[in-house]
Each structure stands twice: as C-alpha cells, then as structure tokens.
Amino acid sequence: MKAKKKQLDVVTPESLGVNVSPRIKTLKVEPPAERKAGIKVADVATLVDKLKNEAKVI
Hints:
The chain is an all-alpha fold.
C-alpha cells in the first residue's frame, strides 16, 4: 500500500505580519589570529614540569 502524502499549507511571512528584512549589518570579517606552534616533550616528567611552571595549570 502506498503511503499517503499529507497536504502542506504554504504560508508567507507577509500574511503573518512578520518583517523578514535583515536587522544586523556585517561591518567586517577577518580570520582568527594564527596560533603558535606546539611544544614536544620527551617524557611525562618534563610535561608535568611545563604544566606546573610555564602554563600554571597544575
């Protein structure tokens, strides 16, 4: 048995009284700043030391 298609009602914004004109102006667009290169560490002890002293995360 074929599936029946339901009728879709098409409504325009004007019939609902909605203003669809853009309200935001784009002044300028620029790419984000370049990121610095990462650092490779030799072992876990060096990683923990850098996190404690340089990044102050731990």
